[in-house]
Amino acid sequence: MFRPVVARCTGLVAKRQLINSTSYIVPITTIHISTRFYSPPSALDRNAISRRIIDVLKTFNKTNKDQQEITEKASFQKDLGLDSLDLVEFIVAVEEEFSIEIPDKIADDLKTISQTVEYIKNETDAS
Hints:
The protein is built from five helices and two strands. It is an alpha+beta fold. A two-stranded antiparallel sheet has the order 1-2. The model is unreliable at 11-18 (pLDDT under 50). β1 and β2 form a beta hairpin. Carrier of the growing fatty acid chain in fatty acid biosynthesis. Keywords: Electron transport, Fatty acid biosynthesis, Fatty acid metabolism, Lipid biosynthesis, Lipid metabolism, Mitochondrion, Phosphopantetheine, Phosphoprotein, Transit peptide, Transport. InterPro entries: ACP (IPR003231), ACP-like_sf (IPR036736), PP-bd_ACP (IPR009081). This is Acyl carrier protein.
């Protein structure tokens, strides 16, 4: 069942030959050139990313600050009062908002809104 798929993916082409009334498959190798397509840089500007992050952040804000009071310099834990569980939920919400996946090592290093905005701006798959 999977043989044709594997043959197509690896670049092998099978040729069926008939010799003395028995058929068998003779693999013929071909040159398989792989092509990579890279996505273009993110078309999002810094202000749009910042606004969308602040909109997501409003649902996690424990200090009752308005959207106008939240700046890019705000720290998630110190200024906005997010604990570790809130931070994980916030990162998941940002991943869903921008259709990206943030690795755990990088997510641990994101401490402010500006760092998160900068990461998303540099992420080519963000939408």
